[in-house]
Amino acid sequence: MRLKYHTSLSAEASFQRLGERIRAARKHKRLTLNDLENRCGVHRTTLSRLEAGDPSVSFAVLLAVLEALGFLSDIEAVISSPAKAIPAAKKIPELDRNF
Fold first, then answer.
1. What gap in Å lies between CA 66 and CA 72, rounded to an integer?
2. Separation CA 60–CA 40 (nearest Å)
3. What pLDDT does residue 39 have?
4. Which Gene3D superfamilies match (predicted)?
5. Rounded CA separation 18/54 (Å)
6. pTM to 2 decimals?
7. How do residues 54-89 score in pLDDT, each as one tens digit?
């Protein structure tokens, strides 16, 4: 689902997998889109877009949905110890000033 954002194919696949996992978690908890809408205050149309892997859904919406499904602690783990979850960026050498 390509939108105005520049996303790689691997990023698009990640959005797709995330949406599928959110849908599976919702169904595992036996929640309808209406149920989830009532829990997190996000309209079911937006929830459907998130579950479809739409990358334009905001991070705030994602956090609200993850919290409603009981998965916010997983994101908190990444935030609280980013060194374990996200590899350190490689240092980029400075350009020669004469360049």
1. 5
2. 11
3. 96
4. lambda repressor-like DNA-binding domains (1.10.260.40)
5. 10
6. 0.72
7. 999 999 999 999 999 998 888 877 677 655 555 555
| Signed CA dihedral, 78, 84, 87, 91: sign only | positive
| 22 and 69 Cβ atoms separated by less than 8 Å | yes
Burial 16-37 (b: 16+ CB within 10 A, else e): bebbeebbebbeeeebebeebb
Residue 60's H or E segment, with its range, is helix 59-69
Residue 15 tokens read as 């959005």
Match 């350009």 to its residue by tokens: 95
Cβ atoms of residues 66 and 39 within 8 Å: no
Euclidean distance between CA atoms 36 and 30, whole angstroms: 10
Give 13-33 as a DSSP string.
HHHHHHHHHHHHHHHHTT--H
Residues 6+ apart with CB under 8 A from 82: none
List, in order of start, the domains of the chain with CATH numbers: 9-85 (1.10.260.40)
